[in-house]
Structure formats: structure tokens, C-alpha cells
Automatic annotation (TrEMBL):
Organism: Confluentibacter flavum
Transmembrane portions of the chain: none
Repeat among keywords: no
Name listed for the protein in its UniProt record: YceI family protein
Keywords, in A-Z order: Signal
Domain Lipid/polyisoprenoid-binding YceI-like: 29-194
């Protein structure tokens, strides 16, 4: 009887250890690698097409199960005044339109993963919704993206078309209003988490 108890206790201990280890290996969190990530905003104007790059991003992605591509959480913050076009006058107009005096960050927070399709070799196609906050206006948006996963890193790739006015942003103007910016912009991102 005593031997039976010892064996039962050992089996129970091993099962608890196995469950805890399985949970630790499945739930994983990665931090955004700013120097390796890119986010570019593309737009048009009455003069020429333009683009602006984010130089300062931070964030996290975590998974319920990395091998199955089951995302639990994604948060991304961009310092609004780290958006750079290479032209200081354009940057000033951008910051004015984004009201950066009061709204320092642009942020995205995952709300719900609707569908995940495995493409093989750690690649997944994801359909989701999330909260995008620009210039203090927060909106729930649909977002499709792909993820490529390894044990050490996650790459999130996609693009999203939005209208500036949907976020109460007046498209910037320059040269006393003679140059006007189009309302439609495309956000392209290749975000690396490690």
C-alpha cells in the first residue's frame, strides 16, 4: 500500500510538472525589435506621391500556442514625432495634423483574431480586428496580415489602407494651401519581434 502511494505521488508530480512545462513552452511573449522593424506611410498630394517612415516603435506579441499561430495579444506604439519624411517642412505639417502636442503616440492593440490559416513552416495568414488610435481618435479596424514564426522571433507583415478624416485628421496642406494631401493613405509594416 505504501509503495502504491509513493508511485501515485510520483506519477501525480510528473503530470503536474509536464502540464506546467507544456504551458510554459506554449505561451510565449516577444518584444518589438525597433532597429529591425519598418513602418511606412504612403500617400498622395496635388504635387507628388510621398512617404514617411516611423523611426521609434515599441510593442509586444504573445501567443497561446506559437506552433499553432494562436496569437493572444499584440500591442504596438509609435512615437508620432518619430515619423520622418526627410523634409522638415513636411514633418512639421504632419505633426500639426497629428496634433502631436497633445497626442504623443500612435497605437495599435489587437482586439480579436477571427481566423488563422497555416501556410506551413511557421507561416500563418491572420484575419483580425484591432484598435488603431491616431491623434487621440480610437477606432476598431479590420486587419489582415501574415506572421512568420521561429522559436526566437516573429515577423508580422501587412498593409492597411485608411482615410485620415476617419481619425479626425485634416489632410496636411503646404505652400499656403496650394499643395494639398490626399485623404487616403496606406500603412505598410514589417514588424520584427524577438
Amino acid at each position: 500500500m505504501n509503495t502504491y502511494k509513493k508511485i501515485s505521488t510520483r506519477v501525480l508530480s510528473l503530470m503536474v510538472l509536464f502540464i506546467m512545462t507544456a504551458n510554459l513552452t506554449q505561451a510565449q511573449e516577444f518584444n518589438l525589435a525597433n532597429g529591425e522593424s519598418t513602418l511606412t506611410i504612403l500617400g498622395t498630394s496635388s504635387l507628388h506621391d510621398w512617404h514617411i517612415d516611423a523611426e521609434n516603435q515599441s510593442g509586444k506579441i504573445s501567443f497561446k500556442n506559437l506552433e499553432a499561430g494562436q496569437i493572444e495579444k499584440v500591442t504596438i506604439d509609435i512615437v508620432a514625432e518619430s515619423l520622418k519624411s526627410g523634409k522638415s517642412s513636411m514633418d512639421k505639417n504632419t505633426y500639426k495634423a497629428l496634433k502631436t502636442n497633445n497626442h504623443k503616440n500612435i497605437s495599435f492593440q489587437l482586439a480579436e483574431v477571427k481566423n488563422v490559416v497555416s501556410k506551413g513552416n511557421g507561416a500563418f495568414s491572420v484575419t483580425a480586428t484591432g484598435y488603431l488610435t491616431i491623434a487621440g481618435t480610437k477606432k476598431l479596424i479590420p486587419l489582415d496580415f501574415t506572421i512568420n514564426t521561429t522559436k526566437a522571433s516573429v515577423k508580422l507583415i501587412g498593409e492597411k489602407k485608411i482615410k485620415m478624416t476617419d481619425f479626425n485628421v485634416d489632410p496636411p496642406k503646404a505652400m499656403f494651401g496650394t499643395i494639398t494631401t490626399g485623404n487616403d493613405i496606406t500603412i505598410k509594416f514589417s514588424t520584427i519581434f524577438k
